[in-house]
Protein backbone atom coordinates (compact mmCIF):
# COMPACT_ATOMS: atom_id res chain seq x y z
CA UNK A 1 0.00 0.00 0.00
CA UNK A 2 1.36 3.47 -0.84
CA UNK A 3 2.83 5.40 2.03
CA UNK A 4 1.18 8.74 1.28
CA UNK A 5 -2.10 10.13 0.00
CA UNK A 6 -2.51 10.01 -3.78
CA UNK A 7 -4.58 13.01 -4.90
CA UNK A 8 -5.24 11.66 -8.41
CA UNK A 9 -8.97 10.98 -8.99
CA UNK A 10 -9.99 10.36 -5.39
CA UNK A 11 -13.47 9.28 -4.38
CA UNK A 12 -15.09 12.15 -2.47
CA UNK A 13 -17.30 11.16 0.47
CA UNK A 14 -19.52 13.76 2.13
CA UNK A 15 -20.30 12.83 5.73
CA UNK A 16 -18.19 11.16 8.39
CA UNK A 17 -20.87 9.14 10.17
CA UNK A 18 -21.05 5.36 10.26
CA UNK A 19 -21.86 4.99 6.55
CA UNK A 20 -19.32 7.55 5.33
CA UNK A 21 -16.54 6.18 7.53
CA UNK A 22 -17.25 2.60 6.44
CA UNK A 23 -17.37 3.56 2.77
CA UNK A 24 -14.07 5.45 3.07
CA UNK A 25 -12.43 2.46 4.75
CA UNK A 26 -13.63 -0.06 2.16
CA UNK A 27 -12.45 2.10 -0.75
CA UNK A 28 -9.06 2.93 0.76
CA UNK A 29 -8.45 -0.72 1.67
CA UNK A 30 -8.69 -1.40 -2.07
CA UNK A 31 -5.90 1.11 -2.72
CA UNK A 32 -8.06 3.94 -4.00
CA UNK A 33 -7.58 7.44 -2.56
CA UNK A 34 -10.45 9.01 -0.62
CA UNK A 35 -11.28 12.54 0.51
CA UNK A 36 -13.69 12.37 3.45
CA UNK A 37 -15.53 15.65 4.08
CA UNK A 38 -17.01 16.09 7.58
CA UNK A 39 -18.61 19.38 8.60
CA UNK A 40 -18.22 18.90 12.35
CA UNK A 41 -16.94 20.67 14.42
CA UNK A 42 -17.14 23.61 11.99
CA UNK A 43 -20.91 23.11 11.89
CA UNK A 44 -22.71 20.97 14.47
CA UNK A 45 -26.10 19.24 14.21
CA UNK A 46 -28.92 19.37 16.79
CA UNK A 47 -28.09 15.82 17.95
CA UNK A 48 -24.28 15.47 17.78
CA UNK A 49 -22.13 16.44 20.76
CA UNK A 50 -18.55 15.76 19.60
CA UNK A 51 -16.34 16.11 16.54
CA UNK A 52 -15.62 12.37 16.40
CA UNK A 53 -16.40 10.29 13.34
CA UNK A 54 -19.19 7.69 13.60
CA UNK A 55 -20.63 9.34 16.70
CA UNK A 56 -23.61 7.41 18.10
CA UNK A 57 -26.30 9.97 18.86
CA UNK A 58 -29.17 7.72 20.01
CA UNK A 59 -28.79 4.24 21.48
CA UNK A 60 -25.44 2.53 21.97
CA UNK A 61 -26.84 -0.83 20.86
CA UNK A 62 -26.10 -2.63 17.59
CA UNK A 63 -28.92 -5.01 18.55
CA UNK A 64 -28.94 -8.83 18.48
CA UNK A 65 -25.66 -10.50 17.54
CA UNK A 66 -26.83 -14.09 16.93
CA UNK A 67 -26.94 -14.88 13.17
CA UNK A 68 -28.96 -18.06 13.78
CA UNK A 69 -31.94 -16.21 15.23
CA UNK A 70 -31.85 -12.60 14.01
CA UNK A 71 -31.57 -10.81 10.68
CA UNK A 72 -29.37 -8.13 12.23
CA UNK A 73 -27.07 -10.89 13.50
CA UNK A 74 -26.70 -12.14 9.93
CA UNK A 75 -25.79 -8.61 8.85
CA UNK A 76 -23.18 -8.41 11.65
CA UNK A 77 -21.62 -11.64 10.38
CA UNK A 78 -21.53 -10.48 6.77
CA UNK A 79 -19.96 -7.14 7.65
CA UNK A 80 -17.26 -8.83 9.72
CA UNK A 81 -16.57 -11.17 6.80
CA UNK A 82 -16.15 -8.16 4.50
CA UNK A 83 -13.66 -6.42 6.80
CA UNK A 84 -15.98 -3.78 8.28
CA UNK A 85 -14.24 -1.04 10.26
CA UNK A 86 -17.48 -0.28 12.09
CA UNK A 87 -17.90 -3.87 13.29
CA UNK A 88 -14.23 -4.14 14.25
CA UNK A 89 -14.53 -0.99 16.37
CA UNK A 90 -17.78 -2.28 17.91
CA UNK A 91 -16.21 -5.62 18.80
CA UNK A 92 -13.24 -3.87 20.41
CA UNK A 93 -15.50 -1.69 22.57
CA UNK A 94 -18.43 -3.99 23.33
CA UNK A 95 -20.31 -3.80 26.62
CA UNK A 96 -22.50 -6.33 28.48
CA UNK A 97 -25.98 -6.28 26.89
CA UNK A 98 -27.52 -9.75 27.08
CA UNK A 99 -27.90 -11.13 23.57
CA UNK A 100 -27.19 -7.75 21.99
CA UNK A 101 -23.98 -6.07 20.86
CA UNK A 102 -23.74 -2.76 22.71
CA UNK A 103 -20.69 -0.48 22.64
CA UNK A 104 -18.95 2.17 24.65
CA UNK A 105 -19.89 5.10 22.43
CA UNK A 106 -16.84 7.25 23.17
CA UNK A 107 -14.32 4.46 22.70
CA UNK A 108 -16.08 3.28 19.56
CA UNK A 109 -16.05 6.72 17.92
CA UNK A 110 -12.44 7.33 18.93
CA UNK A 111 -11.38 4.00 17.37
CA UNK A 112 -13.09 4.80 14.06
CA UNK A 113 -11.68 8.34 14.02
CA UNK A 114 -8.16 7.08 14.70
CA UNK A 115 -8.34 4.44 11.97
CA UNK A 116 -9.59 6.90 9.36
CA UNK A 117 -7.09 9.61 10.32
CA UNK A 118 -4.17 7.15 10.22
CA UNK A 119 -4.98 5.59 6.84
CA UNK A 120 -2.45 6.77 4.22
CA UNK A 121 -5.05 6.86 1.45
CA UNK A 122 -7.72 8.84 3.31
CA UNK A 123 -7.61 12.61 3.66
CA UNK A 124 -10.03 13.92 6.28
CA UNK A 125 -11.24 17.45 5.51
CA UNK A 126 -13.20 19.30 8.18
CA UNK A 127 -15.55 21.44 6.14
CA UNK A 128 -19.21 21.75 5.17
CA UNK A 129 -20.10 20.87 1.61
CA UNK A 130 -23.05 23.21 1.22
CA UNK A 131 -24.22 22.11 -2.23
CA UNK A 132 -24.05 19.09 -4.48
CA UNK A 133 -20.62 17.88 -5.51
CA UNK A 134 -18.62 20.14 -7.86
CA UNK A 135 -18.59 18.97 -11.47
CA UNK A 136 -14.90 18.01 -11.31
CA UNK A 137 -15.67 15.42 -8.59
CA UNK A 138 -16.20 12.37 -10.78
CA UNK A 139 -16.92 9.77 -8.10
CA UNK A 140 -18.96 10.99 -5.12
CA UNK A 141 -20.75 9.39 -2.18
CA UNK A 142 -23.20 11.44 -0.12
CA UNK A 143 -23.45 9.82 3.32
CA UNK A 144 -24.69 12.76 5.35
CA UNK A 145 -27.23 10.68 7.20
CA UNK A 146 -30.55 11.75 8.63
CA UNK A 147 -29.06 15.04 9.88
CA UNK A 148 -28.04 16.39 6.48
CA UNK A 149 -27.23 20.10 6.64
CA UNK A 150 -30.05 22.36 5.41
CA UNK A 151 -27.98 23.73 2.51
CA UNK A 152 -27.07 20.27 1.20
CA UNK A 153 -30.60 18.95 1.75
CA UNK A 154 -31.99 21.83 -0.27
CA UNK A 155 -29.49 21.15 -3.05
CA UNK A 156 -30.52 17.49 -3.13
CA UNK A 157 -34.19 18.40 -3.31
CA UNK A 158 -33.50 20.88 -6.10
CA UNK A 159 -31.66 18.21 -8.11
CA UNK A 160 -34.17 15.40 -7.52
CA UNK A 161 -37.37 17.42 -7.59
CA UNK A 162 -38.61 15.44 -4.61
CA UNK A 163 -40.62 16.87 -1.73
CA UNK A 164 -39.10 16.87 1.72
CA UNK A 165 -39.20 13.31 3.08
CA UNK A 166 -38.32 14.07 6.69
CA UNK A 167 -39.38 12.09 9.74
CA UNK A 168 -38.77 12.57 13.44
CA UNK A 169 -36.34 10.48 15.46
CA UNK A 170 -36.13 10.53 19.24
CA UNK A 171 -33.32 9.96 21.75
CA UNK A 172 -33.56 8.04 25.05
CA UNK A 173 -32.35 9.44 28.40
CA UNK A 174 -29.12 8.29 30.06
CA UNK A 175 -28.94 7.81 33.86
CA UNK A 176 -25.99 7.85 36.26
CA UNK A 177 -25.60 4.29 37.59
CA UNK A 178 -24.92 5.34 41.18
CA UNK A 179 -28.27 7.16 41.35
CA UNK A 180 -30.29 3.96 40.74
CA UNK A 181 -31.75 2.32 43.86
CA UNK A 182 -30.62 -1.32 43.64
CA UNK A 183 -32.75 -2.21 46.66
CA UNK A 184 -35.65 -2.00 44.22
CA UNK A 185 -33.91 -2.71 40.90
CA UNK A 186 -31.82 -5.75 39.96
CA UNK A 187 -29.42 -7.02 37.30
CA UNK A 188 -30.72 -9.61 34.82
CA UNK A 189 -30.87 -10.20 31.09
CA UNK A 190 -34.19 -11.40 29.72
CA UNK A 191 -34.32 -15.19 30.16
CA UNK A 192 -30.77 -14.88 31.61
CA UNK A 193 -29.38 -14.75 28.08
CA UNK A 194 -25.67 -13.95 27.83
CA UNK A 195 -24.52 -11.85 24.89
CA UNK A 196 -21.19 -11.03 23.18
CA UNK A 197 -19.75 -9.26 26.23
CA UNK A 198 -22.29 -10.25 28.85
CA UNK A 199 -22.93 -12.62 31.70
CA UNK A 200 -26.69 -13.05 31.50
CA UNK A 201 -27.18 -10.25 34.03
CA UNK A 202 -26.50 -7.27 31.82
CA UNK A 203 -29.54 -5.01 32.28
CA UNK A 204 -30.77 -3.08 35.28
CA UNK A 205 -34.47 -3.84 35.74
CA UNK A 206 -36.97 -1.57 37.48
CA UNK A 207 -40.30 -3.32 38.28
CA UNK A 208 -43.79 -1.85 38.26
CA UNK A 209 -46.99 -3.21 39.71
CA UNK A 210 -50.23 -2.68 37.79
CA UNK A 211 -51.29 0.46 39.64
CA UNK A 212 -47.83 2.02 39.16
CA UNK A 213 -47.84 1.13 35.49
CA UNK A 214 -51.31 2.59 34.89
CA UNK A 215 -50.38 5.82 36.65
CA UNK A 216 -47.18 5.98 34.59
CA UNK A 217 -49.05 5.56 31.29
CA UNK A 218 -51.58 8.24 32.31
CA UNK A 219 -48.76 10.65 33.15
CA UNK A 220 -47.04 10.02 29.80
CA UNK A 221 -50.20 10.69 27.81
CA UNK A 222 -50.95 13.91 29.74
CA UNK A 223 -47.36 15.21 29.84
CA UNK A 224 -46.06 18.44 28.35
CA UNK A 225 -44.11 17.72 25.19
CA UNK A 226 -42.28 19.49 22.38
CA UNK A 227 -44.68 20.09 19.51
CA UNK A 228 -43.95 19.00 15.96
CA UNK A 229 -44.44 22.58 14.76
CA UNK A 230 -41.46 23.67 16.84
CA UNK A 231 -39.14 21.33 14.98
CA UNK A 232 -40.00 20.91 11.33
CA UNK A 233 -43.60 21.88 10.68
CA UNK A 234 -46.80 19.90 10.98
CA UNK A 235 -47.32 16.59 9.22
CA UNK A 236 -43.84 15.08 9.53
CA UNK A 237 -44.18 11.38 10.43
CA UNK A 238 -42.26 9.35 12.97
CA UNK A 239 -40.27 6.29 11.94
CA UNK A 240 -42.24 3.38 13.40
CA UNK A 241 -39.09 1.70 14.77
CA UNK A 242 -38.18 4.65 16.97
CA UNK A 243 -41.49 5.95 18.33
CA UNK A 244 -41.39 8.24 21.36
CA UNK A 245 -42.51 6.42 24.49
CA UNK A 246 -45.45 8.80 24.97
CA UNK A 247 -46.66 8.19 21.39
CA UNK A 248 -46.63 4.44 22.08
CA UNK A 249 -48.58 5.05 25.29
CA UNK A 250 -51.28 6.86 23.32
CA UNK A 251 -51.84 3.76 21.18
CA UNK A 252 -53.30 1.76 24.05
CA UNK A 253 -52.83 1.15 27.76
CA UNK A 254 -51.15 -2.22 27.23
CA UNK A 255 -48.87 -1.17 24.37
CA UNK A 256 -45.82 -0.41 26.53
CA UNK A 257 -45.96 -3.62 28.59
CA UNK A 258 -45.92 -5.60 25.36
CA UNK A 259 -43.14 -3.40 23.97
CA UNK A 260 -40.17 -1.81 25.76
CA UNK A 261 -41.66 -2.45 29.23
CA UNK A 262 -42.52 -6.14 28.80
CA UNK A 263 -41.95 -8.14 32.02
CA UNK A 264 -41.44 -11.52 30.38
CA UNK A 265 -38.32 -13.57 31.12
CA UNK A 266 -37.50 -11.56 34.26
CA UNK A 267 -37.79 -12.42 37.96
CA UNK A 268 -37.44 -9.82 40.70
CA UNK A 269 -35.09 -11.33 43.34
CA UNK A 270 -36.39 -8.86 45.94
CA UNK A 271 -39.93 -10.32 45.63
CA UNK A 272 -39.56 -13.59 43.67
CA UNK A 273 -43.12 -14.71 44.41
CA UNK A 274 -44.61 -11.55 42.88
CA UNK A 275 -44.32 -11.11 39.12
CA UNK A 276 -43.98 -7.47 38.04
CA UNK A 277 -46.71 -6.16 35.76
CA UNK A 278 -44.17 -4.19 33.70
CA UNK A 279 -40.39 -3.66 33.74
CA UNK A 280 -38.22 -0.73 32.69
CA UNK A 281 -34.78 -1.89 31.51
CA UNK A 282 -31.55 0.14 31.46
CA UNK A 283 -28.50 -0.91 29.43
CA UNK A 284 -24.86 -0.04 30.10
CA UNK A 285 -23.85 2.98 28.01
CA UNK A 286 -20.10 3.39 28.65
CA UNK A 287 -17.09 1.17 29.38
CA UNK A 288 -16.79 2.39 32.96
CA UNK A 289 -20.31 1.21 33.72
CA UNK A 290 -21.18 4.59 35.23
CA UNK A 291 -23.93 5.43 32.71
CA UNK A 292 -27.04 3.46 31.72
CA UNK A 293 -29.58 4.34 29.04
CA UNK A 294 -33.31 3.69 29.33
CA UNK A 295 -34.09 1.04 26.72
CA UNK A 296 -36.90 2.03 24.36
CA UNK A 297 -37.50 5.32 26.18
CA UNK A 298 -36.85 7.69 23.30
CA UNK A 299 -39.03 10.72 23.95
CA UNK A 300 -40.07 14.20 22.92
CA UNK A 301 -41.29 15.15 26.40
CA UNK A 302 -40.03 18.46 27.70
CA UNK A 303 -37.09 18.04 30.03
CA UNK A 304 -38.90 18.91 33.27
CA UNK A 305 -41.70 16.48 32.40
CA UNK A 306 -39.13 13.73 31.78
CA UNK A 307 -37.53 14.26 35.18
CA UNK A 308 -40.85 14.28 37.01
CA UNK A 309 -42.36 11.25 35.26
CA UNK A 310 -39.27 9.03 34.99
CA UNK A 311 -38.55 9.52 38.69
CA UNK A 312 -41.87 7.79 39.45
CA UNK A 313 -40.32 4.54 38.16
CA UNK A 314 -39.38 2.31 41.14
CA UNK A 315 -35.62 2.48 41.54
CA UNK A 316 -35.29 5.79 39.70
CA UNK A 317 -36.81 8.06 42.35
CA UNK A 318 -33.47 9.82 42.81
CA UNK A 319 -32.17 9.34 39.29
CA UNK A 320 -29.60 11.81 37.98
CA UNK A 321 -29.70 12.19 34.23
CA UNK A 322 -26.48 12.52 32.25
CA UNK A 323 -28.61 13.24 29.20
CA UNK A 324 -32.34 13.73 28.83
CA UNK A 325 -34.29 12.55 25.84
CA UNK A 326 -34.79 14.69 22.78
CA UNK A 327 -36.03 14.72 19.25
CA UNK A 328 -34.50 15.73 15.95
CA UNK A 329 -35.47 15.80 12.33
CA UNK A 330 -34.26 13.08 9.99
CA UNK A 331 -34.36 13.13 6.19
CA UNK A 332 -34.37 10.30 3.67
CA UNK A 333 -34.77 9.91 -0.09
CA UNK A 334 -37.52 8.22 -2.06
CA UNK A 335 -34.74 5.86 -3.09
CA UNK A 336 -36.64 3.33 -5.27
CA UNK A 337 -37.58 6.20 -7.55
CA UNK A 338 -34.36 8.21 -7.42
CA UNK A 339 -31.53 5.66 -7.21
CA UNK A 340 -30.41 2.83 -9.50
CA UNK A 341 -29.36 -0.67 -8.43
CA UNK A 342 -25.89 0.60 -7.41
CA UNK A 343 -27.37 3.50 -5.41
CA UNK A 344 -26.38 6.08 -8.02
CA UNK A 345 -28.58 9.11 -8.54
CA UNK A 346 -30.39 8.42 -11.80
CA UNK A 347 -30.24 12.09 -12.79
CA UNK A 348 -26.49 12.32 -12.02
CA UNK A 349 -24.83 8.86 -11.93
CA UNK A 350 -21.48 10.16 -10.64
CA UNK A 351 -23.22 10.65 -7.26
CA UNK A 352 -24.07 7.76 -4.96
CA UNK A 353 -25.89 7.85 -1.64
CA UNK A 354 -25.17 5.73 1.43
CA UNK A 355 -26.49 5.29 4.96
CA UNK A 356 -29.75 6.38 6.53
CA UNK A 357 -30.45 9.02 3.90
CA UNK A 358 -31.16 6.14 1.49
CA UNK A 359 -34.04 4.83 3.59
CA UNK A 360 -32.46 2.20 5.78
CA UNK A 361 -32.81 2.52 9.54
CA UNK A 362 -30.36 1.67 12.32
CA UNK A 363 -26.66 2.06 13.00
CA UNK A 364 -25.67 -1.29 11.53
CA UNK A 365 -27.86 -0.98 8.46
CA UNK A 366 -26.44 2.49 7.76
CA UNK A 367 -22.87 1.23 8.04
CA UNK A 368 -23.74 -1.81 5.92
CA UNK A 369 -25.03 0.35 3.07
CA UNK A 370 -21.85 2.42 3.41
CA UNK A 371 -19.87 -0.80 3.03
CA UNK A 372 -21.84 -1.87 -0.04
CA UNK A 373 -21.61 1.54 -1.69
CA UNK A 374 -17.88 1.66 -0.92
CA UNK A 375 -17.41 -1.63 -2.79
CA UNK A 376 -19.54 -0.39 -5.68
CA UNK A 377 -17.63 2.89 -5.96
CA UNK A 378 -14.27 1.13 -5.71
CA UNK A 379 -15.21 -1.30 -8.47
CA UNK A 380 -16.34 1.54 -10.72
CA UNK A 381 -13.19 3.55 -9.99
CA UNK A 382 -11.08 0.52 -11.02
CA UNK A 383 -13.17 -0.14 -14.12
CA UNK A 384 -14.42 -3.50 -12.85
CA UNK A 385 -18.05 -4.65 -13.11
CA UNK A 386 -19.81 -5.01 -9.78
CA UNK A 387 -21.60 -8.31 -9.31
CA UNK A 388 -24.91 -7.66 -7.51
CA UNK A 389 -24.99 -8.81 -3.92
CA UNK A 390 -27.04 -12.00 -3.57
CA UNK A 391 -30.58 -11.08 -2.45
CA UNK A 392 -30.42 -14.07 -0.10
CA UNK A 393 -27.81 -12.27 2.03
CA UNK A 394 -28.78 -9.65 4.59
CA UNK A 395 -26.74 -7.02 2.78
CA UNK A 396 -28.27 -7.88 -0.58
CA UNK A 397 -31.79 -7.96 0.87
CA UNK A 398 -31.30 -4.52 2.37
CA UNK A 399 -29.95 -3.06 -0.88
CA UNK A 400 -32.90 -4.57 -2.73
CA UNK A 401 -35.37 -2.94 -0.35
CA UNK A 402 -33.77 0.45 -0.90
CA UNK A 403 -33.43 0.25 -4.65
CA UNK A 404 -36.52 -1.63 -5.77
CA UNK A 405 -37.99 -4.02 -3.24
CA UNK A 406 -40.71 -1.60 -2.17
CA UNK A 407 -44.26 -2.46 -3.22
CA UNK A 408 -44.96 0.81 -5.01
CA UNK A 409 -43.48 4.22 -5.67
CA UNK A 410 -46.17 6.85 -5.56
CA UNK A 411 -45.69 9.85 -7.81
CA UNK A 412 -48.67 11.83 -6.55
CA UNK A 413 -49.40 12.38 -2.89
CA UNK A 414 -47.18 11.38 0.05
CA UNK A 415 -44.52 8.80 -0.91
CA UNK A 416 -45.17 5.38 0.63
CA UNK A 417 -41.50 4.35 0.87
CA UNK A 418 -40.41 4.31 4.53
CA UNK A 419 -37.12 3.56 6.34
CA UNK A 420 -36.75 -0.02 7.47
CA UNK A 421 -34.45 -2.14 9.61
CA UNK A 422 -33.14 -5.39 8.16
CA UNK A 423 -35.60 -8.19 8.93
CA UNK A 424 -36.46 -11.70 7.76
CA UNK A 425 -39.33 -10.32 5.69
CA UNK A 426 -36.78 -8.80 3.27
CA UNK A 427 -35.22 -12.20 2.44
CA UNK A 428 -36.50 -14.29 -0.50
CA UNK A 429 -38.46 -17.41 0.48
CA UNK A 430 -36.55 -20.61 1.10
CA UNK A 431 -36.67 -23.13 -1.76
CA UNK A 432 -39.00 -25.36 0.26
CA UNK A 433 -41.40 -22.44 0.67
CA UNK A 434 -41.82 -22.02 -3.08
CA UNK A 435 -43.61 -25.32 -3.55
CA UNK A 436 -47.10 -25.54 -2.09
CA UNK A 437 -46.93 -29.34 -2.19
CA UNK A 438 -44.13 -29.18 0.39
CA UNK A 439 -46.20 -27.10 2.79
CA UNK A 440 -45.77 -29.57 5.63
CA UNK A 441 -41.99 -29.58 5.20
CA UNK A 442 -41.62 -25.83 5.49
CA UNK A 443 -39.40 -24.89 8.41
CA UNK A 444 -40.98 -22.73 11.06
CA UNK A 445 -39.78 -20.32 13.72
CA UNK A 446 -36.16 -20.70 14.74
CA UNK A 447 -35.62 -23.52 12.25
CA UNK A 448 -36.65 -21.22 9.40
CA UNK A 449 -34.39 -18.42 10.63
CA UNK A 450 -31.46 -20.83 10.94
CA UNK A 451 -32.09 -22.08 7.40
CA UNK A 452 -32.15 -18.51 6.03
CA UNK A 453 -28.94 -17.79 7.94
CA UNK A 454 -27.16 -20.85 6.52
CA UNK A 455 -28.26 -19.97 2.99
CA UNK A 456 -27.02 -16.39 3.45
CA UNK A 457 -23.60 -17.57 4.63
CA UNK A 458 -23.29 -20.00 1.71
CA UNK A 459 -24.33 -17.46 -0.89
CA UNK A 460 -22.03 -14.77 0.45
CA UNK A 461 -19.08 -17.14 0.17
CA UNK A 462 -20.06 -17.97 -3.41
CA UNK A 463 -20.23 -14.26 -4.22
CA UNK A 464 -16.82 -13.64 -2.65
CA UNK A 465 -15.33 -16.49 -4.62
CA UNK A 466 -16.16 -14.72 -7.89
CA UNK A 467 -13.46 -12.12 -7.35
CA UNK A 468 -10.69 -11.40 -4.88
CA UNK A 469 -11.69 -7.75 -5.21
CA UNK A 470 -14.63 -8.21 -2.84
CA UNK A 471 -12.68 -9.93 -0.08
CA UNK A 472 -11.43 -7.84 2.85
CA UNK A 473 -8.00 -6.37 2.18
From the spread of the alpha carbons, the general shape counts as globular
Provide the succession of SSEs.
EHEEHHEEHEEHEEEEHHEEHEEHEEHHH
Which secondary-structure class do the elements indicate?
Answer: alpha+beta
Corresponding CATH architecture of the largest domain? 3-Layer(bba) Sandwich
Description:
The protein is of the alpha+beta class and 473 residues long. The chain has two domains: 11-165 and 332-465, 3-Layer(bba) Sandwich (FAD/NAD(P)-binding domain); 170-329, Elongation Factor Tu (Ef-tu), domain 3, CATH 2.40.30.260. 29% of the residues lie in helices and 15% in strands. It has helices spanning 18-29, 71-81, 85-92, 105-118, 150-160, 210-222, 245-250, 303-310, 335-338, 363-381, 394-405, 445-465; strands spanning 11-14, 34-38, 61-64, 94-95, 100-103, 122-126, 140-142, 166-171, 174-176, 186-187, 203-208, 278-284, 291-294, 321-323, 326-331, 344-345, 348-353. A six-stranded mixed sheet has the order 6-2-1-7-17-16, covered by helices on one side. Helix 1 (18-29) links the parallel strand 1 and strand 2. Helix 1 (18-29) runs parallel beside helix 10. The longest helix has 21 residues, at 445-465. The chain is globular, with a radius of gyration of 22 Å. It starts with 10 loop residues before the first strand and ends in an 8-residue tail after the last helix. Mean pLDDT is 86; it is low at 228-234 and 407-415.
